[in-house]
Amino acid sequence: MAHTHNSEQHFEHLLKKHNLKRTEPRLRVLSMLSQKNVATSQPDLESVIGNVDRVTLYRILSAFEEKGIIHKVFDLNGTANYALCSSDCDEHDHRDEHLHFNCTNCNNVYCLDDHDFPQITLPPGFKLESFNFTATGLCPKCS
Q1: Which residues are annotated as a binding site for Zn(2+)?
Q2: The whole model's pTM is what?
Q3: Which residues are annotated as a binding site?
Q4: 24 and 79 in contact (C-beta within 8 Å)?
Q5: Fewest CB within 10 angstroms: 12, 62, 76, 130, which?
Q6: Any coiled-coil ranges, and where (predicted)?
Q7: Does domain 2-137 have CATH number 1.10.10.10?
């Protein structure tokens, strides 16, 4: 039970840090996303989160993405999936630049944070705001 209480305190702190009001639906979304080892779509969240309507869930996800609490990554079908960001992210500096792995069998999207990327050098006049690396193949469960 202590783990749940500590998690809830962590989520409350996260909401406060990003100037978001503490609500039960927001806490449930954070709890569900933290329990997953894959990025999760809005329909999947709807099916497990309980009595939160689609519009409220959309607004929660949008606010969390805008504040740098979660990031969005698309699966092979073009469906948006959401995963928690690292603790360094905020609304002004979103750091979700890591490898995303799409499994071609189960369609799960994994965030693989521990991979180095080559330096990106752009031509003069270009300003990099974000980038996305996606790999496809079979996840350990499917291979």
Answers
A1: 103, 106, 139, 142
A2: 0.81
A3: 103, 106, 139, 142
A4: no
A5: 130
A6: none
A7: yes
